[in-house]
Amino acid sequence: MHYKIKSAANILFLNSFMAVLFLSAMSSVQLNAQNDSLQKTYSDTAYYSKMRDSLMKVYTEQNKDYEKMMKKQESKKRGLGSSFFGLNLDVIFGVGFSNTEFDVNGDTTGLSNATSKTGPMLGVNVNFNLIGFAISTGFNYSSKGFSSGSSDQVNANYLNIPLMFAFNFDIGKVEMDIAAGPYVGILLSQEKSEYYALKNIDLGIVGTLQGAYFFNSFVGALLGVKYEHGGLNNMIDSEALNSYASSVKSRNWFIYSGIKFVL
Fold first, then answer.
1. CA distances from 192 to 117, 121, 195, 223 (A)
2. What is the pTM of this model?
3. Who's near 29: CB < 8 A, 6+ residues apart?
4. What end-to-end distance do the CA atoms of the chain give, in Å?
């Protein structure tokens, strides 16, 4: 009987001990699970924080690039139009260096020894701009001719109407224009010569290179050079009497300044 009671007590003690071990194990498992959950939550929070900071950095850089692009676009906007389309007016004045070439019929000292002469030039050009390209026309007065062997200047005054195709681009605050095309010259007056007479119309080609520094969105200062190659239709009037030349061509360089108005 005593043995049976002792065995029952041992069994009860063993069961209690096993229960305590089981509860301790379960508590340990729950604690580890909570620690893992906390660690995972911290890891996820750190990851999302890094991703958020990375996205904010990309957004900030893109926003800075956008603001730079808008400022650049705004700086190119001149006049009342946009940076893609515009209309401007150039008022120019300067000096020209004229060379006239004659094909003479005989030994004519007054023509064969012709040298260059200087003369004034002025004009107004209208430019239609479209996405960096432009069409330019207007009215340009220039005094051409030559100096004879006796140093006397022979003048021929023309009003030229060009039709030029231009390309423009910016270098800092300076707008550069490169243009070229044909022109029609109308003879306004010519000093009488015993050797030749000129036609009323001169056909040629013209090219310009100019820069404009803008004080504001509407006004800028111009500086440029221009070259004209005239006489493509032979400037000599073949119907004139006592003509000592069979053909006349002109080579003219101009240096000019002026004002550009952006409309």
1. 17, 21, 9, 34
2. 0.68
3. none
4. 123
The answer to whether 244 and 106 are in contact (CB under 8 A) is: yes
Last residue of one domain, picked from the residues 14, 48, 76? 76
Residue 30 has pLDDT above 60, yes or no: no
> 83: closest CA among 241, 207, 177, 217?
217
Quick one: how far is CA 53 from the chain centroid?
38
Radius of gyration of the chain (CA): 44
Instruction: Identify the domain boundary among 76, 108, 143.
Output: 76
CA distance 243 to 245: 6
Pick from 138-147, 205-214, 254-263: least confident: 138-147
Domain residues for the domain of 58 are 1-76
According to DSSP, the β-strands at 133-147 and 85-104 are unpaired
Tokens of residue 146, six digits:
């030559």
